[in-house]
C-alpha cells in the first residue's frame, strides 16, 4: 500500500504519527476483545412529550466498561468500530439488549436505538431487526431507529430501499442530529421518516439568537406539515425547554429532564418522580 503512493512519500513518518498509530491499534485490539467479551452496557435517557409532559420512552446510549480506562463514551470508540465494521456485531448486541429491556417497560413506552450507516450498508439490517423483534416479542411500533443524515447520503440511495423495508416491519424511523452536516430539506420528503431530532447546537443557540429559534420553529412546522414529529435534543435549562415548546417541537430530551442512566434507575427516576417541567410549571402542564 505504501509502495503504491510512491517512494519518498511513505517515509514521512514522524514519532508523533507512530504514537497515534500505536494508540489506534491498541484501541482496535481492545475493542475487538470488548465486542467478544461484551464489555458494554446501555444507558437510557428519557424523552418527554412537550404538550402532556408525559414520558414517551427512552433512547439507548452505548457505554463501554473498559477494563483499565473505566467507562468510555461512544464518541471515543464508535468511529473506530465503524471503520473496522465491528459496529455491525456491536450494533446487533445493542438492538437485542434494548429490545429485551423494552419489553420489560410498562405500557407503550418506546425505545430508541441508534443505527450506524455501516450497519445499514454492511449489516443485514432488515433481517437483523426482523429477527430481534420476533425473538423478543417487542411490538415494532415501540421501536424507533435513529439514523443520521450520513446514512441517507451513503451508498447511492440503496439505503432508501433498506429504510423502506425497515419501515414495512412497523418500526419508526427517526432522523437524528438534524441541522448538522449535510442537512437538506429534501431528505425530509424523500425518506420514510416518522420523526426529526433537532440537534442540540440549535437548542443551545435558541435562547440567545432569534435566528436559531426561527430555524427550529420552521423545521418543527415543516415536519408537522409532512406528518412527522420533532424532538428537541440537549435541553439543559428551563429557558431552552420553554423556547422549544414555543417553537412547536413535540418532544424534548436533555439533562434538565433526565440524564442517561442504567435501565432500572432510569425507569425509577422518571416514572416515580415528576419531571422538572411538572415541578416548575404545574399549572401549565395541566392546562393542555
Ligand atoms: P445522539 O444519538 O445524538 O445521542 C445524544 C447524545 O447527547 C448522548 O451522548 C447524550 O448523552 C447526549 N446528551 C443528552 N442530553 C444532553 C444535554 O442536555 N446536554 C449535552 N451536552 N449532551 C446531552 P452520548 O451517549 O455520548 O452519545 C454520543 C453519540 O454516540 C450519540 O449521539 C450517537 O450518535 C452515538 N451512539 C450512542 N450509542 C450508540 C449506539 O448504540 N450505536 C451507534 N451506532 N451510535 C451510538
Ligand atoms: Mg440518537
Ligand atoms: Mg442526536
Ligand atoms: Mg446529537
Automatic annotation (TrEMBL):
Top-level taxon: Bacteria
Designated name of the protein: Diguanylate cyclase (GGDEF) domain-containing protein
Source species: Bosea robiniae
Domain EAL: 24-274
Amino acid at each position: 500500500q505504501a509502495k503504491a503512493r510512491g517512494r519518498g512519500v511513505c517515509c514521512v513518518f514522524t514519532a508523533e504519527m507512530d504514537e497515534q498509530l500505536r494508540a489506534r491499534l491498541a484501541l482496535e485490539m481492545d475493542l475487538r476483545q470488548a465486542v467478544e467479551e461484551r464489555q458494554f452496557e446501555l444507558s437510557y435517557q428519557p424523552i418527554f412529550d412537550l404538550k402532556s409532559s408525559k414520558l414517551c420512552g427512552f433512547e439507548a446510549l452505548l457505554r463501554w466498561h473498559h477494563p483499565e480506562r473505566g467507562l468510555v463514551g461512544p464518541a471515543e470508540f464508535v468511529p473506530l468500530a465503524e471503520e473496522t465494521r465491528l459496529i455491525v456485531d456491536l450494533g446487533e448486541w445493542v438492538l437485542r439488549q434494548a429490545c429485551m429491556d423494552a419489553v420489560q417497560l410498562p405500557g407503550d413506552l418506546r425505545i430508541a436505538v441508534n443505527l450506524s450507516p455501516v450497519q445499514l450498508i454492511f449489516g443485514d439490517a432488515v433481517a437483523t431487526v426482523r429477527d430481534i423483534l420476533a425473538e423478543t416479542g417487542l411490538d415494532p411500533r415501540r421501536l424507533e431507529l435513529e439514523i443520521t443524515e450520513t446514512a441517507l447520503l451513503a451508498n447511492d440511495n440503496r439505503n432508501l430501499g433498506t429504510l423502506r423495508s425497515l419501515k414495512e416491519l412497523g418500526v419508526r424511523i427517526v432522523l437524528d442530529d438534524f441541522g448538522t452536516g449535510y442537512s437538506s430539506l429534501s431528505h425530509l420528503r424523500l425518506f420514510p421518516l416518522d420523526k426529526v431530532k433537532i440537534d442540540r447546537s440549535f437548542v443551545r443557540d435558541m435562547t440567545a439568537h432569534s435566528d436559531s429559534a426561527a430555524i427550529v420553529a420552521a423545521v418543527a412546522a415543516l415536519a408537522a406539515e409532512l406528518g412527522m414529529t420533532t424532538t428537541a435534543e440537549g435541553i439543559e435549562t428551563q429557558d431552552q425547554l420553554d423556547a422549544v415548546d414555543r417553537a412547536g417541537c413535540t418532544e424534548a430530551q436533555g439533562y434538565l429532564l433526565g440524564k442517561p442512566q442504567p435501565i432500572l434507575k432510569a425507569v425509577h427516576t422518571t416514572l416515580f418522580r415528576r419531571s422538572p417541567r411538572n415541578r416548575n410549571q404545574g399549572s401549565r402542564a395541566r392546562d393542555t
